[in-house]
């Protein structure tokens, strides 16, 4: 496999990975802006290549996962106009190597499918993937590699913003570890509730998932806040920040073959 551009379009961030074979040589994160045109995104993406020894002309494939339907077509247009490539968009009908056991498989986000594909290929099953992104998502993968379903909770950044927006006196705070659990000022109290509270959420959900998947279930964390929460709990065994990009590469390779 040559050089591949993997694009994961999320509700708040778009993560882009440049693969050279099986090596992730560069990765970037840009904000999701619904009003940006294909040309505006293209200028931004092409400018990122200047930070690498690679040229956009070297890209041989593009794979896209998206949970923002209006931007899916935008990035398809970018791929076709600026890379002269028809992208592989992860959707129904695409080979993923994952059997979806959801009541309605079309409801499962493409990023969750990519995470499941990577988790099973790299770490085996049964497994629980915890994705700390806009939402905090728990996904279950069976011993055989089937996607079974999961649980969705508000993301930690959403929770922090909700406190600021819906209270009169609570401030917006940095999402970082406070000195101790019992905060002695408002900032540390909010940080304690968020950081240690989400660590407790993970521990509780992982314990419940393990009851259904078995004692040998692996727990893999990914997403923007994976390292932050993983430092506060032993429930997370593996932190893989680029799990979704790895899953997209795996899915692209399956379909290329």
If you had to describe this structure to a student in words, what would you say it looks like?
This protein is an alpha/beta fold and 257 residues long. It has 2 domains: 87 residues, Nucleotidyltransferase, domain 5 (2-Layer Sandwich), CATH 3.30.420.40; 137 residues, ATPase, nucleotide binding domain (Nucleotidyltransferase, domain 5, 2-Layer Sandwich), CATH 3.30.420. It is 37% helix and 25% strand. The chain is built from 7 helices and 10 strands. The strands form 2 sheets. The protein has a 5-stranded mixed sheet, with helices on both faces. It has a 5-stranded mixed sheet with strand order 8-7-6-9-10, with helices on both faces. Strand 1 and strand 2 form a beta hairpin. Helix 1 crosses helix 2 and helix 3 packs across helix 7. The protein is globular and about 55 Å long. The model has no long low-confidence stretch (mean pLDDT 95).
Summarize the structure.
The chain has 257 residues and is an alpha/beta fold.
Q: Main beta sheet: strand number and arrangement?
A: 5 strands, mixed
- SS field, number of helical segments: 7
Summarize the amount of helix as a percent range.
25-40%
Mean pLDDT: 95
Structural class comes to alpha/beta
Features:
single chain; 257 residues; alpha/beta; Nucleotidyltransferase, domain 5; 2 domains; five-stranded mixed sheet; 7 helices; 37% helix; 25% strand
SSE topology:
Layout: E1 3-9, E2 13-20, E3 23-31, H1 38-48, E4 59-66, H2 69-82, E5 88-89, H3 110-123, E6 127-132, E7 135-141, E8 147-154, H4 156-165, H5 186-213, E9 218-223, H6 226-230, E10 238-239, H7 243-256
Parallel strand pairs: 1-4, 4-5, 6-9, 9-10
Antiparallel strand pairs: 1-2, 2-3, 6-7, 7-8
């Amino acid at each position: 496999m040559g050089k591949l551009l993997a694009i994961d379009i999320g509700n708040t961030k778009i993560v882009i990975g440049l693969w050279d074979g099986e090596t992730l040589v560069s990765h970037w994160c840009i904000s999701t802006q619904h009003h940006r045109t294909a040309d505006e995104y293209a200028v931004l993406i092409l400018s990122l290549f200047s930070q690498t020894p690679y040229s956009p002309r070297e890209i041989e494939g593009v794979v896209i996962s998206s949970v923002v339907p209006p931007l899916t077509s935008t990035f398809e247009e970018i791929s076709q106009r600026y890379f002269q490539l028809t992208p592989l968009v992860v959707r129904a009908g695409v080979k993923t190597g994952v059997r979806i056991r959801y009541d309605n498989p079309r409801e499962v986000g493409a990023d969750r499918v990519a995470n499941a594909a990577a988790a099973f290929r790299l770490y085996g099953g049964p497994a629980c993937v915890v994705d700390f992104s806009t939402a905090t998502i728990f996904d279950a993968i069976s011993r055989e590699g089937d996607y079974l379903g999961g649980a969705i909770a508000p993301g930690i950044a959403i929770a922090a913003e909700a406190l600021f927006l819906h209270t009169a006196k609570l401030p917006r705070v940095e999402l970082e570890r406070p000195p101790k659990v019992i905060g002695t000022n408002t900032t540390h109290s909010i940080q304690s509730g968020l950081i240690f509270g989400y660590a407790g959420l993970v521990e509780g959900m992982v314990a419940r998932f393990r009851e259904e998947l078995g004692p040998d279930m692996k727990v893999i964390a990914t997403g923007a806040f994976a390292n932050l929460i993983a430092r506060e709990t032993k429930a997370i065994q593996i932190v893989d920040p680029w799990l979704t990009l790895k899953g997209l590469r795996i899915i692209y390779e399956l379909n290329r073959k």
